[in-house]
Write a structure and sequence with these properties.
heterodimer; A: alpha+beta; Immunoglobulin-like; 4 domains; 41% helix; disordered C terminus; B: alpha/beta; Glutaredoxin; two-stranded antiparallel ribbon; globular
Chain lengths: 709, 211
């Protein structure tokens, strides 16, 4: 018996939910009261002819917005109207989020008015008329009860506006209270853009003032995950919302439409268009900071192994040997001073970078290598150093002979400036861990940036400091002897190698003319060095050498303006693609990448620079190898090289959008995926081929991008 | 007195820990995503028998989320629409599971006997009714409404997720002439074609999970 009742009770409920009958403009139904609201009972052509559908709900019960969310249906109204009268669609006021366990619906509780209006044709028959409405709704709390009502409203139809102004009906108060909750259009000058992320979308809305609270209700279904929280990041001109997408979303929407609700009862209709949003500094957390600082430290350690830094470390190791007989604390002090040199130069560099960033320049890590003046000076300095190491002359000998205390000071100063040198040469060699740490750190407030870079500096200094701290290892150091001289001269070799590299960068980026100037500078340095070496510790020799050095420095500062030329062809273009290499590299531009993606093929972008040694190594070792090029060709990958050797704001912006601040960056774009896959900064052919093998097979011949087969 | 070997050891461990923490990925929740493998499950039916998705590899599997009190579900049962779908497709070798994820004391919750009685009364012929009062299967598949339909192909891939048809109303007259997405998906897949609408917004009452 109970079971039968259980079956039929819902049916009974269904019967009870049947339309309330009677010629009335309101009805009471299960858990709600529904009513037609007419502020003016006279309708005429050209008038506002406003009306509304009003629901008063029992506590806890709700009706739904146009997009009901995970479950539910919005109310519907259909009319039987006299000739000449048409009813517009009902408008939906700004909704609320209605959580339901793991689900989220959008709708209204307590009471809601859906405004709409009528169009009255000119030839309408004047006089009283009855408008008949059939209203359907779904009202829910834990359970849902569909309902319907048939409502009538008696109005007067007029051909022209009445004189005097239409009398207010009894519904005016209700209308005034509830009819103004429709979302407004976003004020002119404000804009909304959205950008895809790996988990969904980022919606940036500029309202002209900082917003700290917002909720976004999507108009279209199946685009967003309705229950997902929407973290708000205030910005100076508005806010950015992080929206999670529906996991089943197949294709990204062309527009993101919906209602944005802000603090203070402001509700706006948004139709966001796709665009780029500047990456946000991620929320600060001690754990996040500790993690990034740890990465930075490791990155610094690793930097010691890079060809940029290694020679400098050699130098310091050498100096260590020379003072192996000194007391332990002097050693430690040397270590700390070296670390101090590194720290100070990092801070100076970061301060400069942040200052320039604040001034609006779009710069990235390694920016100094984009200056030909810097490159020339660097090469000259290292050449001079190499000459000294090779034995042409001794640096500081003049001063050392002047007094013992100065020698000690010279020692510390030497350590300090060796530290500075290490930093200066290390910066463009973005080691694997550094990319993310730098990208993160540079976007943070200054204090955090400095903390992270301090960790980096300490990592860079750590090996040498460790050497100075451990007394036992000092004992391991060999006793001073002739071998030290041989080692010193041998170390000049990597120094000269670095000089060759720098000269190559200059030639690549700025032309052979500037290279000739640089080489002439080397010659003059050798001459100055000869003076210093031939007549050591003689005042007059120094007096001759120093002006030569100054002249060389001045010339190298002035020369680039005169002699630098843009590269006739960027290093990105290989001379010809042999038959074995079906794909070829195109110069990068954001439009070309979009075009290639739209054509349906995958895209690979190599962000590189001449002065970035790891970039060059990766290109020779991994990217330009025949089997890798073959793999690119098989998958019809469009290849782009973004050459950042000279300052290029478009490339800087693209790097920032990928969350990076330096090169190398290797981005593999798959059509249909919103964000590219970033390959590691140390490439092997295996890594590239593996990433390519996970691409979907090239579909049809028409999918070929700009590369020719 | 801490010596350098100890310091370096500690530093090494700290460094590696930092490195590991940085690399450790965040574990994602299981979700049913169309054109991906359907989440594996094991559940007990209204006769106490255990079923696993892996048992039915090689067959099409339909999951139908059900709540006998929900007006949308009633639309399909009172008209006999759901029963005829079950009959048609089980005859073609499809495994049809009705799933009840209503928590105790929520609408749609029934005991095994009540459900078996309901099946008899309504002449419903699913392969089995999976009793999911804990809501595990519902959460695994992200079931939002009743009815909500999932179709899994013989290789275990989810080929359809969403509404039963394209008429999201409670009006029983809307069954005739509606485009039934489940039949569409099964017909297309059995003919070796791709499913035209693999993901639609499901309609119905919300699944009554425990609070």
């Amino acid at each position: 018996m109970r079971r039968t009742f259980a079956i039929f009770a819902p049916l009974l409920l269904y019967v009870l939910a049947q339309p309330a009958l009677g010629a009335s403009n309101s009805a009471d139904a299960a858990h709600l009261h529904v009513e037609l609201v007419f502020p003016h009972s006279q309708l005429y052509p050209g008038g506002s002819n406003e009306a509304g559908l009003y629901f008063k709900l029992e506590p806890g019960w709700h009706v739904y917005w146009v997009n009901a969310g995970d479950s539910g249906e919005p109310p519907r109204i259909s009319w039987t109207l006299p000739d000449g009268l048409t009813a517009g669609a009902i408008g939906f006021p700004a909704p609320s989020r209605l959580p339901l366990g793991p689900l989220m619906d959008f709708g209204y509780e307590n009471e809601v008015l859906f405004p709409f209006s009528f169009q009255v044709a000119d030839g309408v028959k004047q006089g009283p008329a009855t408008l008949q409405a059939k209203v359907n709704w779904l009202v829910c709390r834990e359970v849902c009860i569909p309902g319907k009502a048939e409502l009538d409203e008696n109005v007067e139809l007029l051909r022209t506006a009445p004189m005097p102004v239409a009398v207010s009906g009894p519904d005016q108060a209700l209308w005034d209270r509830l009819a103004n909750r429709l979302p407004q259009a976003l004020p002119a000058g404000d804009e909304a853009i959205f950008q895809q992320t790996s988990t969904g979308f980022r919606l940036a809305v500029a309202t002209g003032r900082r917003e700290s609270r917002a909720e976004f209700f999507p108009e279209d279904q199946n685009i967003l995950s309705d229950p997902a929280p929407q973290p708000v990041t205030p910005t100076t001109t508005g806010l950015i919302l992080d929206l999670t997408k529906d996991p089943n979303l197949q294709a990204n929407p062309a527009q993101l439409k919906g209602v944005l609700e802000l603090a203070g009862g402001r509700n706006y209709l948004i139709a966001a268009t796709p665009g780029t949003i500047a990456p946000l500094p991620p929320a600060f957390s001690m754990l996040g900071l500790a993690r990034i600082a740890g990465l930075a430290f490791l990155g610094g350690l690793l930097l010691n192994l890079m060809p940029c830094v290694f020679p400098v470390l050699f130098l310091k190791g050498l100096a260590l040997c020379q003072c192996g007989v000194e007391e332990r604390h002097k050693l430690r002090t040397h270590g700390f001073v070296y670390a101090g040199g590194i720290l100070v130069s990092f801070w100076a560099l970061v301060a400069a970078l942040l200052g320039l960033r604040a001034a609006g320049a779009t710069l990235g890590w390694g920016f100094q290598f984009q200056s030909p003046v810097f490159l020339s000076l660097m090469a000259l300095l290292l050449f001079f150093l190499g000459l000294s190491l090779a034995g042409q002359f001794e640096i500081g000998l003049t001063l050392t002979s002047a007094g013992g205390s100065l020698a000690a000071k010279q020692g510390y100063a030497g350590s300090f400036f060796t530290g500075v040198l290490a930093v200066v040469v290390a910066t463009p060699c973005t080691a694997p861990f550094m990319g993310a740490a730098i990208g993160y750190a540079l976007a943070q407030p200054a204090a955090i940036t400095f903390a992270v870079f301090t960790a980096l500096a300490l990592g860079l200094a750590a090996p040498y400091v460790a050497l100075t701290l451990q007394p036992a290892w000092t004992r391991l150091l060999p006793k001073p002897g002739v071998w030290m001289d041989v080692l010193k001269q041998a170390v000049s070799v990597p120094i000269f190698a670095t000089v060759i590299w720098l000269a190559w960068v200059v030639a690549q980026a700025y032309g052979a003319a500037l290279l000739a100037v640089l080489l002439s500078g080397f010659l003059m340095l050798a001459v100055a060095g000869w003076f210093l070496g031939r007549w050591p510790a003689k005042r007059w020799a120094t007096a001759v050498a120093v002006p030569i050095l100054i002249a060389v420095a001045v010339v190298s500062v002035a020369a680039p303006k005169e002699f630098a030329s843009s590269p006739a062809e960027s290093s990105a273009q290989p001379e010809m693609s042999g038959a074995a290499a079906p794909a070829s590299w195109q110069p990068w531009s954001a439009d070309a990448v979009q075009h290639a993606l739209a054509a349906g093929g995958p895209v690979f972008v190599d962000f590189t620079a001449s002065w970035c040694l790891s970039c060059q190594v990766n290109e020779r070792v991994a990217l330009d190898k025949p089997d890798v090029m073959q793999a690119f060709g098989e998958k019809d990958v469009a290849l782009f090289r973004a050459d950042w050797t000279r300052e290029d704001p478009a490339i800087t912006q693209a790097l920032t959008a990928l969350g990076r601040s330096g090169v190398p960056v290797y981005a593999l774009y798959t059509p249909g995926q919103s964000t590219p896959q970033l390959l590691p900064q140390v490439l092997t052919p295996g890594i590239v081929i593996d990433a390519l093998s996970r691409l979907p097979q090239a579909a049809t011949p028409t999918n070929a991008g700009p590369s020719n087969k | 007195m801490v010596s350098l070997p100890q310091i370096s050891r500690i530093a090494g461990i700290a460094g590696i820990t930092a490195l590991a923490a940085a690399i450790l990925p965040v574990k994602a929740e299981a979700q049913a995503v169309v054109n991906s493998p359907a989440p594996q499950f094991t559940a007990v039916d209204s006769h106490g028998k255990t079923h696993s998705l892996s048992d039915y590899r090689g067959k099409y599997v339909v999951l139908e989320w059900h709540n006998q009190g929900c007006p949308y579900t009633k639309k399909h049962y009172v008209t006999g629409n759901m029963q005829s779908l079950q009959k048609e497709w089980t005859a073609k070798g499809v495994v049809w599971f009705t799933v009840i994820s209503s928590a105790p004391r929520q609408q749609g919750y029934v005991t095994d006997e009540e459900e078996n009685f309901y099946l008899e009364e309504m002449h419903a012929v699913p392969t089995a009714v999976l009793m999911d009062a804990q809501g595990n299967l519902g959460h695994l598949y992200g079931a939002k409404t009743t009815p909500e339909m999932y179709v899994i192909d013989p290789q275990g891939k989810l080929i359809y997720e969403g509404a039963i048809d394209n008429q999201p109303t409670i009006d029983m007259n809307d069954i005739e002439g509606a485009d039934n997405y489940v039949s569409d998906a099964l017909t297309a897949a059995m003919a070796g074609k791709t499913v035209e609408n693999p993901y639609t917004r499901p309609y119905g009452c919300s699944v009554k999970y425990a609070d």
